[in-house]
Structures are given as structure tokens and as C-alpha cells.
Specification:
This protein is α+β, with helices and mostly antiparallel strands. It has helices at 14-19, 21-29, 59-68, 70-74, 155-159, and strands at 2-9, 35-43, 46-55, 77-85, 104-112, 129-136, 143-152, 167-175. It has an eight-stranded antiparallel beta barrel with strand order 1-3-2-8-5-7-6-4. The longest helix is centred in the middle third of the chain and has 10 residues, at 59-68. The model has no long low-confidence stretch (mean pLDDT 94).
Length: 181
């Protein structure tokens, strides 16, 4: 089962985040084979959160992954969005044809209302999509939104990867490929 996990940073926690960087990376190293995508969201040079898309056996394992994470345990994060997810591209971020570098990268989150939307990646943007899939309830039966990692020239262009009239809101965050540097 695939899961989308977005830890959002607590304001003023940058120094604590920096202090725990090796613990965070070591924790993530334990999940290297299961990770589909990972990386921080940013506001300029300041981290605002961490995205992890991961394949785990069940919702209990996903909750353990999200809440045992060292930054969460230490109070870096103010909240966690954890949802079942379905990898519609069938690849990891490391398989993205555009590579790790070049261009702006964004996390686009569309929170759903009503009938499911954006269940098929837009074919005209496929070369720019790093990860794409629906956010689902724990049992996988209810569509709750859509999450995408996308390369785009700017925030407004990134936003257009999702249908605006089919979501109660669309958030766009600067994002970069994660992992040891």
C-alpha cells in the first residue's frame, strides 16, 4: 500500500530541524527501498515541511513511520497529513526523466470535495510530473484529494496540474528532491 505523508514544520523550528538532520536521514535510510518520493517543502531557503511518499504494508505501519520520525518526536512538525495514495505514474522520483536538477519543483495538493477528480495524470504534462496520485481514506475507498510533485516554471503554472473547480482548495509549495547531500 502506498501512502502520502506530509509533515508541516512548526514555526520557529528551523534550528531544531537542522540539529536533527542526521537522525532524520538515518531514519529515512531504513526505508530507502520503500520510498517513492521524498524531500522538503520550502519558503525560499527555509524548510516548511517534509514530503514522503512510501510503500508500506498497512495503515498501522504508515502511522508508525509518520509518528516515530525523529523530527516529529522532537517537535519540529506542527501537524501531519497521512493518506493512502496511489502511484498513477508507476515510478519513483529517482526514475523521473527530468532528473534531480534543473527547473523549479513544487508540491501541489488538491483537497477534495464530492466526486473524485484528477484520477488520470494530464497527458500534456506527463513529462513534468515527478509523482502523481489520489489521496484516499485509510480503506482506499474514498477520494480525499490529489497530490502531485511537478516541475514547472512557476507556482501558478504548477497549480494548473489540478482542476481548480474540483477541489475545495489547492495548495502549492516549493519542493526539492530529498535525501543525503
Amino acid at each position: 500500500m502506498e501512502f502520502f505523508c506530509y509533515h508541516r514544520d512548526r514555526p520557529g523550528s528551523a534550528a531544531l530541524r537542522e540539529k536533527l538532520v542526521e537522525e532524520h536521514w538515518s531514519y529515512m535510510d531504513r526505508y530507502a527501498a520503500q520510498l517513492i518520493a521524498r524531500g522538503p517543502t520550502l519558503d525560499g531557503d527555509t524548510a516548511t515541511g517534509s514530503v514522503h511518499i512510501i510503500d508500506l504494508p498497512d495503515p498501522g505501519a504508515a502511522r508508525a513511520f509518520a509518528f516515530d520520525e525523529p523530527n516529529y518526536q522532537a517537535g519540529v512538525y506542527r501537524d501531519v497529513m497521512l493518506r493512502r495514495w496511489h502511484n498513477l505514474l508507476g515510478r519513483t522520483m529517482w526514475d523521473f526523466p527530468g532528473g534531480r536538477e534543473g527547473g523549479n519543483r513544487y508540491l501541489v495538493l488538491g483537497l477534495g470535495t464530492g466526486q473524485a477528480a484528477d484520477l488520470v495524470p494530464p497527458t500534456d504534462r506527463r513529462d513534468e510530473l515527478i509523482a502523481y496520485g489520489p489521496l484516499l481514506s485509510d480503506d482506499g475507498a474514498t477520494w480525499l484529494g490529489t497530490a502531485a510533485l511537478v516541475r514547472a516554471p512557476d507556482l501558478d503554472t504548477a497549480r494548473t496540474v489540478l482542476a481548480p473547480d474540483r477541489h475545495s482548495g489547492i495548495e502549492v509549495h516549493e519542493w526539492v528532491f530529498g535525501g543525503r547531500r
